[in-house]
Amino acid sequence: MTNDDATAAAQAAATAGSTGEQPTPRLTLRAGETGHAVTDTVWSQVGGTETFERIARAFYRGIREDEVLAPMYPQDDWEGATWRIQAFLEQYWGGPSAYQEERGHPRLRMRHAPFPVTPDAKERWLKHMHAALDEVELPPMHDAAFRDYIERAALAMVNRFE
Ligand code: HEM
């Protein structure tokens, strides 16, 4: 292929993508329509379900002792709440999609609307999630990516400023 040919091919590919003539290829191979990814994922690289369960349990240990946050959570369903954050995080990082199957689309901002997520609540929530991550000691790049994600997600959840 000459340089001109290569340029033309690249332009054709770019145009096809932007006009929607061809669907954008979806590169993640899944084990079924809503199945987990077959290609390697952060989820599997950090140890899969076992690791996410450790994170969720350590996180809720902190939450249950937090005088501001604990009262917001369902006092008779700590196990359910633990499952929900675990399943959500597993799905987010490429693991099984059990969260979606049980709970549907996450719509996290909407689901948090009933709770007063003030800047103080956000800082407390993050403190417990960081402590949970300290405990599991993910590989450095995964640890950094996880912390970066929760910082951004937590900021997006703030819904009260008093
Ligand atoms: C910023 C401070 C936050 C506070 C105070 C907060 C508080 C809560 C509370 C009280 C619940 C209800 C517990 C339950 O029944 O499951 C909940 C649910 C949940 N939270 Fe948060 N949350 C915060 C941030 C986040 C962030 C950053 C994420 C995601 C990265 C998240 C993910 C979830 C999920 C997946 C559920 C379960 C939703 C469902 O399926 O009903 N939360 N949160």
From TrEMBL:
**What keywords would UniProt list here?**
Heme, Iron, Metal-binding, Transport
Residue ranges under compositional bias (Low complexity)?
1-16
Recorded protein name is Hemoglobin
Transmembrane segment boundaries: none
Q: Which organism is it from?
A: Leucobacter aridicollis
Keyword Iron (UniProt): yes
User: What PANTHER family does its record include?
Assistant: TWO-ON-TWO HEMOGLOBIN-3
**Which Gene Ontology MF annotations are present?**
heme binding; metal ion binding; oxygen binding; oxygen carrier activity
Swiss-Prot/TrEMBL cofactor(s): heme
Query: What domain of life does the native source organism fall in?
Result: Bacteria
What CDD domains does this protein map onto?
TrHb2_Mt-trHbO-like_O (cd14771)
Name the protein family: Belongs to the truncated hemoglobin family. Group II subfamily.
Does the record carry Calcium as a key word?
A: no
